[in-house]
Amino acid sequence: MTTTSSYRIQGATGEWEVVIGLEVHAQITTQSKLFSGAATAFGAEPNTQVSLVDAAMPGMLPVPNRECIAQAVRTGMALNAQINRYSRFDRKNYFYADLPQGYQISQLYHPIVGEGEIEVTLDEKNPESARKTIGIERLHVEQDAGKLMHDQHPTRSYVDLNRSGVALMEIVSRPDMRSPAEAGAYLRKLRTILRYVGSCDGNMEEGSMRADVNVSVRRPGEELGTRTETKNVNSVRFVMAAIEQEASRQVDVLESGGRIIQETRLFDPDKMETRSMRSKEDAHDYRYFPDPDLLPLELEDAFLEECRASLPELPDAKRHRYENALGLSAYNAAVLTAEAETARWFEALVAESAKAAGKSEADVAKAAANWLLSELFGALNRLGKTLDTSPVNPAQGAELLGLIADGTISGTIAKQVFEIMLDTGDPAGKIVEERGLKQTSDTGAIDAAVAKILADNADKVEQYKAGKEALFGFFVGQTMKAMQGKANPQVVNEVLRKALG
């Protein structure tokens, strides 16, 4: 089911609709830059990862990095996009202190990837009922510029060329989004796909993924308005805030009789506002022309097959498999596949659980999902840790789940054991054995506990027999308390039903 957002801005003169497109710059995951062998590691000392090509020394010629091209093609395939067998690099000419060549090598007229699409979920609680398909216009490969540092000297700006020549994918959406929420869903889904593919780590805080936000407003159903572009927004939350603030600003301008100027703007996250940076350039202002130092890219069938064969199972396919083959709820499947790391951890947990129990993965998947999403995630949030730094690994989690499944411990005792595992790193079996936490199914001991509880609560027994069946839960709770949580709940229920008639 495809839905359209009903998001509107209520102006003084009526409703306004927001039209949004995103240009996402994603740093390609490789060990070296697009046209040189210089390293790309984050956090290096300024100007320590700069080759002669990056610094634009005379006579230096660019050589395309094959892995960068492969990553772009793999990403295009994951976006269900057209892969162009022929593409070409162009020079985008402009002069700035952090651009040594005086031009950026990009792709304007013949990008490597054409039209594609992404399906997003607008309501995580009800993922099947709120979906929308957002078009991808193109994906092209380009090199990044360097970075100006304005906080190193009171009167001068310094230049760091470590990022100069770093390989980027620019992924341009269609103007299909109609609310900040849709833009946020699109950006999150795109980041998820890039991480699954491994073509970008999606770390917006470190600058390896950032978005230029195109926003215009119009009366519902009318022609598109004049758009502005808010540059280099570096978080999903800030993208949504920038859209909201810029759209409201445009409505205020139009309703006061002004006009929107096509321009480039910046988002100030401290003041939560956009401000003008410069008038928006058109393509002709950059004097594009084919780069004379680079031959066109012509992709062969074997290369394309190699790229396709290396793709992992993608999030939508994985989500459908979790629902259909493993029997998970749509919500749990959506949460488990939202991040590649979560899906990998879950699958390792399921595989270990199935192996230990001698069952199929479908038999153990629901219990594994519920424990991961509630118990483990809750503990990690409390400890300020992630799955990568979890004190408990999938094999240890599977051992704990196995002890619950075979009746060795109850769910209540399992919570206690899990806390000890987090503190000590010891396996569940060792903790249960050393601390005497095994669940008892000894009907003699349970019979005795039940008899005492019923004798001590004769009034409640009479109320139960008179029709107040909700008291059964009271008797169960008292029995479990008397048995220090070690009684098998199923046996407790059976004994109580027999004793209460």
UniProtKB/TrEMBL annotation:
It comes from the Bacteria. One of its GO terms (molecular function) is transferase activity. The keyword ATP-binding applies. Its EC number is 6.3.5.-. Keywords: ATP-binding, Ligase, Nucleotide-binding, Protein biosynthesis, Transferase. Pfam families: GatB_N, GatB_Yqey. Residues 344-500 form the Asn/Gln amidotransferase domain. It catalyses: L-glutamyl-tRNA(Gln) + L-glutamine + ATP + H2O = L-glutaminyl-tRNA(Gln) + L-glutamate + ADP + phosphate + H(+); L-aspartyl-tRNA(Asn) + L-glutamine + ATP + H2O = L-asparaginyl-tRNA(Asn) + L-glutamate + ADP + phosphate + 2 H(+). One of its GO terms (biological process) is glutaminyl-tRNAGln biosynthesis via transamidation. Heterotrimer of A, B and C subunits. Allows the formation of correctly charged Asn-tRNA(Asn) or Gln-tRNA(Gln) through the transamidation of misacylated Asp-tRNA(Asn) or Glu-tRNA(Gln) in organisms which lack either or both of asparaginyl-tRNA or glutaminyl-tRNA synthetases. The reaction takes place in the presence of glutamine and ATP through an activated phospho-Asp-tRNA(Asn) or phospho-Glu-tRNA(Gln). Belongs to the GatB/GatE family. GatB subfamily. This is Aspartyl/glutamyl-tRNA(Asn/Gln) amidotransferase subunit B.
